[in-house]
């Protein structure tokens, strides 16, 4: 249950962040909005980390260098989301974003990328993705 609650919280924040960044980008620019968002996110994460001290920074040397670039994806995510919202609106952007995430996570699960255990996907999962895509198409009509 806790995982579902955090998933809903994360999804809500993605939407709110996209809308806020779109508004900011109208005033200062999209890459500037991405930079400010990344910076404020860093400040919040650093504050929470200082208060909780639940990490093991000394073990960062064990992390593969390519995984340390994960934060750089956030700048591309912000730019892409803001640009999409400006062109196609919030609802369609978030719908397309979710479908993109699901399709890529299918590949990650099926192939076992990033050291994850390979998962078998069955017909119901593929039907579910197809229904989501059909729903977005109907939503856009």
Number of helices: 5
SS elements, strand count: 0
Structural class: mainly alpha
Low-confidence stretches: none
Describe the main β-sheet briefly: none
Arithmetic mean of pLDDT: 89
Quaternary structure annotation: single chain
The fraction of residues in strands falls at under 5%
Helix-strand string: HHHHH
Q: What is the general shape?
A: globular
What fraction, in percent, of the residue positions are helical?
over 70%
The span between the termini is 35 Å
Q: From the alpha carbons, calculate the radius of gyration and give it in angstroms.
A: 18 Å
Provide structural commentary.
The protein has 5 helices and no strands. With 141 residues, it is mainly α. The chain is globular.
Protein topology:
Elements: H1 2-28, H2 30-52, H3 70-88, H4 90-111, H5 123-140
What descriptors fit this protein?
141 residues, 5 helices, globular
Brief digest:
It is built from five helices and no strands. It is mainly α and 141 residues long.
């Amino acid at each position: 249950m806790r995982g579902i609650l955090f998933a809903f919280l994360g999804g809500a924040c993605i939407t709110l962040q996209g809308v806020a960044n779109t508004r900011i980008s109208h005033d200062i620019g999209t890459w500037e909005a991405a930079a400010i968002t990344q910076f404020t996110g860093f400040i919040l994460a650093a504050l929470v980390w200082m208060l909780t001290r639940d990490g093991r920074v000394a073990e960062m040397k064990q992390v593969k260098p390519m995984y340390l670039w994960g934060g750089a994806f956030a700048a591309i995510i912000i730019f892409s989301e803001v640009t999409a919202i400006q062109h196609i609106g919030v609802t369609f952007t978030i719908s397309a974003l979710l479908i993109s995430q699901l399709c890529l996570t299918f590949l990650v699960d099926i192939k076992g990328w990033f050291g994850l255990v390979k998962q078998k996907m069955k017909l119901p999962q593929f039907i579910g993705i197809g229904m989501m895509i059909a729903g977005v198409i109907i939503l856009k009509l």
